[in-house]
Amino acid sequence: MTAEVRCSALGSVTHDALHDISLGGCMLTGIETTLPAGTPVDIRLLKGVEVAGVVRWNAPGKIGVEFRHPLSKAALMYFTLDDLPDCKSVALDHFGRKLPPLGRLQNPA
Asked: pTM (2 decimals)?
């Protein structure tokens, strides 16, 4: 999955590409400034959904961020629904966001 997010670090704000998101972190690409490991970052995933984290690794043009607190499952599902099979026609909530199929929400016993 790929989405554009706003990243704040070291007093500057950039718009970068979000990749490989999980409950515990993500990878950002399109980073023009080297952010050393340990640098605090704030990422705005969506309007009203911000997450604080810390850079754990960097490579040319990309960083790995560990979230300070786990991302909510609802926010994670928002970004990963398109990766699920058979999600071409899914229901939308009142805000126009995709709702996961009921079978995907249930935990097998």
From this structure: 0.71
Tokens, residue 32: 């023009």
Closest CA to 9 of 42, 49, 48, 44: 42
Let me know whether 43 and 57 are in one domain.
yes
Task: Report the alpha-carbon distance of residue 68 to residue 41 in Å, rounded.
Answer: 10
Q: How far apart are CA 14 and CA 61, in angstroms?
A: 12
Res 85: pLDDT: 53
Tell whether the model's pLDDT for residue 83 goes beyond 70.
no
Task: Write out pLDDT tens, residues 38-63.
Answer: 999 999 988 888 999 999 999 999 99
Q: Regarding beta strands 40-46 and 25-29, do their DSSP bridges make them parallel or antiparallel, or are they unpaired?
A: unpaired
* Structural domain for 53, as ranges: 3-67
How many domains does the chain fold into?
A: 2
Q: Beta partners for 55?
A: 65
Helix or strand or coil: residue 56? Answer: strand
Q: Give 60-73 as a DSSP string.
A: TTEEEEEESSPPPH
